[in-house]
Amino acid sequence: MVWWSIPLEATSPHLSNSSGSHQLLGSVILPGNNIQSLTPSESSSDLWTNLMGLWVDSQNQQTRLIFSTPTGWQPVITSSAVLPEINIEIRPDFWRDRNIVWAEGLRWQQKYIDLNSHQRLFTPPPSNSTGRESARFPVVWLEIDLNNQGISLQPILSRPGSRSGVSPLVHVASSTRAAAAINGGFFNRNNQYPLGAIRHQNRWLSGPILNRGAIAWTDQNQFFIDRLELSQTLFPDRREPIPLDRLNSAFIQRGLSRYTSDWGSTYSPFTPREIAITVQGETIISHQVLDSINFSAVPIPDDGYLLILRNEPEIALALGIDETQCIGLVCPPSTQTEHQPLPVQLVDETNPPDFAEYPHILGAGPLLLRGNQVVLDARAENFSDAFNTQRAIRSAVGLKTNTPGRSGSDSPAVSLLLVVVHPRLGGPGPSLAELAELMKQLGATDALNLDGGSSTGLYLGGYLLDRPPQTAAPIHNALGVFLSP
Question: Which of 118, 160, 119, 213 is nearest to 446 (CA)?
Fold first, then answer.
């Protein structure tokens, strides 16, 4: 919802009471100190259902009209050369077609895209639909020429020195001096930690989760989009191998996870009782119990890593840790216990293996397009059914290749699309299936859904292109576009 304030030149004693303002439902102002009732037409009834009234405020020789509209609606103000009146028309179709070269290799485009009736094959109308629901969506996107050597891309964080924290996209982009940016992957709004892959210069700032889609790229602007898994296996000396669940992740599950110095200088526990196992070089040297209630923390060695064990006593025994010795006051939280040195080896690999070749990765999901085919499968990426069927504001990233029908890994991408899609005219936002079809219409052969809803935002040159900044929620990470001087 967006609030508007429209100033007029003169005040009128008929528009205010002693408190300075009052509410007038369904009214417009006519100069000459007249108030005329407005009867909404049938075509505007949806707007008046959502309009939260009209306030008139008269102070300091000025009258202001204050009202709110749904996101995507905008007032268009005209006046008459003959009659003393102004007309305020509130419309959902205020976006104008744009096709602007903002910088060499960076083009800003926006227009309405109509999916027409064939889209019904992908998304049947809901049970309460009249069958006449519009499939015309306002779409804003940036097209980036990947052959332009003066353009580079990086994952950017709201707080570069911390894994936790959120900030408005405008602030994140401007503080990193990005020329353009789009909101990135998912995060936990409570603790503000990322929930998915963020890899920068071959460093896993946050590890991938749940076989979800990701986009990867090199410093030479070679791109790859697919679902991503990271497999890690610990090989203790003369013992059975142990699978590791996560790397530098705030997605918490039982089992053994690994945290490196790319997570930070220390690790603080997420759950009430965790065991931190310190590995220096390739040797386990100590372990201790961590207590999230007391916010105890443990250093992460620069020349090694921490293994964090949650609710798996069998793994503790396999690593030579007797959990029965760490109950109650026998082994109080944050008390380090010497561990008989145990050599370990670590093996990790990505699935598919292609991801290992890319120093930069940003995860989100679900995957929308691969090789010019719709491959949407939210369940395969462990998204809920509610998420899969939701219709909301969306953002996505896509690749256009030289050869339609071939994936980005088979055919060099020629341009990257950063896309945001707002609600259809007079209706809800796109479903994931509709987003996939919209990306195809924009020419993408491979595409990935990003975090959407209130996180959606497309930034260019200091401004959000698609929405008023006050309507955009803070985000954790983004995909930034940088121009060489």
Answer: 213
**Distance between CA atoms of 130 and 152, rounded to whole angstroms?**
46
CB 384 within 8 A of CB 403: no
In the block, tokens 């504001």 appear at 393
CB 445 within 8 A of CB 404: yes
Q: What are the CA-CA distances from residue 302 to residues 51, 244, 337, 411 (Å)? A: 57, 20, 20, 39
- Residues 6 or more apart whose CB falls under 8 angstroms from that of 89 comprise 75, 76, 77, 78
Exposed/middle/buried for 102, CB within 10 Å: 0-12, 13-18, 19+? middle
pLDDT tens across 193-203, in order? 999 999 999 99
- Tokens standing for 451? 């975090």
Burial tier of 109 (Cβ tally within 10 Å: 0-12, 13-18, 19+): middle
Would the pTM of this model clear 0.85, i.e. be above it?
no
If DSSP codes are grouped into helix, strand and coil, which group holds residue 31? Answer: coil
Mind listing the pLDDT tens digit for each residue in 383-440?
A: 999 999 999 999 999 999 865 544 545 557 699 999 999 998 778 999 999 999 999 9
